[in-house]
C-alpha cells in the first residue's frame, strides 16, 4: 500500500540515530531486506523496501546506544505542540518548516515516562 498522506495520529516516519551507521545499515538491510542509500554529507541515509521509503538512519546526535525517533502525523502542529506541553511533555525542538516537499513542518517533544 503506497501512501501520500497519513491519517492524523499515525506513524509517518522513523529515524534511527546510531553511533555506528555503517553497521546499522548492514544490519537492517539484512534483517528487513531494506535498500539503503549511501550516506549524504551529514551521514544520513534513506531506507526503502520495494521502492518505497520506510525509514532513515544517521549518526546519533546524543551519546549512548542507538535510538529510534518516531514521527506522528498531525493536522495542526502548533496546536499539538501546545497540547503536548499542557500534558507534561517538553518541546525539545519548536515547530519549524524543514523540507516543504517531504515534511511540511516538524517538532520534537520528549514525553514524560509513564
List keywords for this structure.
about 110 residues, alpha+beta, 2,3-Dihydroxybiphenyl 1,2-Dioxygenase, domain 1, 2 domains, 5-stranded mixed sheet, two-stranded antiparallel sheet, 2 helices, about 35% strand, globular
Short description:
The protein is of the alpha+beta class and 114 residues long. It contains two helices and seven strands.
Give your account of this protein's structure:
This protein has 114 residues and is of the alpha+beta class. Helix content is 19%, strand content 36%. It is built from 2 helices and 7 strands, in the order E-H-E-E-E-E-H-E-E. The model has no long low-confidence stretch (mean pLDDT 84).
Q: Would you spell out the secondary-structure blueprint of this structure?
A:
Elements lengths: L10 E8 L2 H12 L2 E2 L8 E5 L2 E8 L7 E6 L4 H10 L3 E7 L9 E5 L4
Parallel strand pairs: 1-4
Antiparallel strand pairs: 1-5, 2-3, 3-4, 6-7
User: Might you state the CATH topology name of the largest domain?
Assistant: 2,3-Dihydroxybiphenyl 1,2-Dioxygenase, domain 1
- Helical percentage: 10-25%
Query: Structural class of the helix and strand makeup?
Result: alpha+beta
* Number of contiguous helices: 2
Name of the level-1 CATH class of the largest domain: Alpha Beta
- What name goes with the CATH superfamily of the largest domain? 2,3-Dihydroxybiphenyl 1,2-Dioxygenase, domain 1
Largest sheet: 5 strands, mixed
Q: Give a count of the beta strands, DSSP E runs of length 2 or more.
A: 7
User: Approximately how much beta-strand content do the residues carry?
Assistant: 35-45%
The succession of helices and strands, N to C, reads: EHEEEEHEE
Strand order of the largest sheet: 2-3-4-1-5
Low-confidence parts, pLDDT < 50 over ≥5 residues? none
CATH architecture call of the largest domain: Roll
Q: Using only CA atoms, what is the Rg?
A: 15 Å
What distance separates the N and C termini?
33 Å
**Anisotropy-based shape:** globular
Amino acid at each position: 500500500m503506497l501512501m501520500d498522506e497519513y491519517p492524523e495520529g499515525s506513524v509517518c516516519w522513523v529515524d534511527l540515530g546510531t553511533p555506528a551507521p555503517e553497521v546499522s545499515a548492514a544490519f537492517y538491510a539484512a534483517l528487513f531486506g531494506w535498500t539503503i542509500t549511501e550516506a549524504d554529507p551529514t551521514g544520513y541515509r534513506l531506507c526503502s523496501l520495494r521502492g518505497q521509503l520506510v525509514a532513515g538512519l544517521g549518526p546519533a546526535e546524543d551519546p549512548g546506544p542507538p535510538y529510534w525517533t518516531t514521527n506522528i502525523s498531525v493536522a495542526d502542529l502548533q496546536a499539538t505542540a501546545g497540547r503536548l506541553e499542557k500534558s507534561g511533555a517538553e518541546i525539545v525542538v519548536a515547530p519549524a518548516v524543514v523540507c516543504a516537499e517531504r515534511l511540511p513542518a516538524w517538532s520534537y517533544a520528549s514525553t514524560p515516562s509513564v
